[in-house]
Structure formats: structure tokens, C-alpha cells
Amino acid sequence: MKKGFIYIGITTFLFSTMEIALKTISENFNPIQLNFSRFLIGGIILLPFALKALKSKKISLTPKDIKTFSLLGLTCVVISMTFYQLAVMNTKASVVSVLFSCNPIFVMIFAYIVLKEKIYKHNIIALVLELLGIIVIINPLNTKLSITGIILTLLAAITFAIYGVLGKKSCAKFGGIVVTCFSFILGGLEMLILSLLSHLNIISDVLKSLNLNKFAEIPILSGYTLDTLPNVLYVFICVTGIGYALYFKAMEVTSANTTSLVFFFKPILSPILALIILKEVIPLNMILGIIFILIGSLASLLPPLINERHKNLSY
């Protein structure tokens, strides 16, 4: 159990620095280029762990499984993380981090619609509190934030929640690390193919005419210099690769409920780190919004954790 909490601690720190690290290199790279690169490399780092998990379960992947992972990669990497990367470019790293951490409330909604999972009283309380937190942070009556950045962040959180719900059955069969690894690799390859296609004149001309210049002629290898390399390696290897590997290792030695504490502490730690590193001011409405989100997270997390503890004690 102690090892599990060490994993959770390291994962929380890595995930809390994700938006900050991306922000520091966002001006040096095309957002789509950065997106497919980090998930492709992150997935490759996870590959040995995924292959070990498959071997232990004595499972071989079928063409149907690859098709499923490709769909998950499309949803997560191509759609959700493109919104996410664009959001990081358009608003504060701390805002993206806090709002994206609310994706569990969207998971609950889609799980109810798609998987017919039950919604309990504490889930409703959590939903209301976290929505209040989002509204307070956005402060629609007097917002100084980028509306585009907020919309992109919420779209990223919603589509990431859809990815989580669609991948639930696959996770039950293969385990989370296998699903994450192959959806990252296949999603990264899909993005790479789309990036190469964006260099075709007929496609790039249409994209430019629609004022979508970031999606036209997407670079593959530009931006990598000695100055950007440390942050690039940190994002690709530490945050995306090691971060997710430790997240699933924590799940193995504790539980899914305990590991979800990562997303409780992330909204606290991220703004503090953004203040220290990026000098991003934390306004009063954001502090209040974070408090609402944290109380909502507690309302969602505590009942399962208490039930889990009672079960363990009964054994």
C-alpha cells in the first residue's frame, strides 16, 4: 500500500505539471505536431508494460481489438487531446488543468447514458458542486479568460470522458495499461498520417481558406532544439510515459478509487505550480471555484473509499 501512495504522489506531481510544461514549449511547436509526438512516444514507453500484462493474462490481440483501440485512439488523441493542446495555447495553464480535472463528472453522465450505470445521491451532489466550481471559475458576468480557451478545455474534458466510457469494456478485458498503450500508439499514428496528408496542396489550400492554418502543412520534426529538448523530453517521457505507467501501477497495488485521488490533488497543486513557474496569478473566483470542485470531488470519492475500507476490514 505504501508503494501505491508513492506512485500516486509521483503521478500527481507529473500530471500537475503537464499543462505548465506544455505551455513552456507551445510557441515552439505546432499544437498538432506536439500532440501526436508525445502520445506516440508515450505509448511506446508503455509498450513493455502492456505486453507483460497481455502475457500474464494469456491474451492475444485480434484485428477486432486493433480496430477498437484505433477508435479509442481517434477519440482520445486525435479529437480530445487536439482540443486540449489548443486550449493550452489559448488560456492559462492553471485554468486548463483545473477545468480538465472535472472530466469525471462527464464520465458519470456518459456512463449513465451509454452503459446504464447507476447514479447515486453522492454523484448528484458532486456533479452540482463541480458544475458550480466551473461556473465560478469562468465567471461569465465578468470573465477575463479566453472564451475560446474555456470552450476548448471543456470540449477536451467531454471527449476524454467519452474515451473513458467507450474504453471501459476493453479495460475490463485487457486492463487499463494495455488499452492506454495501444490507443496512444494508434491514435498517435492516426495523427501522424493526418499531419502528412495536411501537406497535400489540395488539403492545405482548403484548410488555409477556412482560416485553419494550424491544421495545414503540419510540421513533423521542426522545433526540436537544444533549448526545447529538456522540456520536450519531460513532457514526452516523464509526464506522458512514466506518468501513465505509474498511474496504472498505483491502480494495481491500491484500487481505482484510491488512485483517483490524483485528480483530487491535481486542481490544488497545478495552480500553485503555475503561479511559481509561469507567474500566473490565481484570482479569488478561481480559488472559490477550486474549493467547490474539491468539495465535489470529496463527495464523489469518499463514499467508495469508505465502502472499500469497510470491505477490507471485514476480511
UniProtKB/TrEMBL annotation:
Its main location: membrane. The chain crosses the membrane at residues 37-54, 66-87, 93-115, 122-141, 147-166, 178-203, 231-248, 260-278, 284-306. Gene3D superfamilies: 1.10.3730.20. The keyword Membrane applies. The keyword Membrane applies. Residues 3-138, 148-299 form the EamA domain. Keywords: Cell membrane, Membrane, Transmembrane, Transmembrane helix. It is found in: Cell membrane. It comes from the Bacteria. Pfam families: EamA (PF00892). It is a multi-pass membrane protein. GO terms for cellular component: plasma membrane. InterPro entries: AA-Vitamin_Transporters (IPR050638), EamA_dom (IPR000620), EmrE-like (IPR037185). PANTHER family: INNER MEMBRANE TRANSPORTER, S-ADENOSYLMETHIONINE_S-ADENOSYLHOMOCYSTEINE TRANSPORTER. Belongs to the EamA transporter family. This is EamA-like transporter family protein. It comes from Clostridium bornimense.
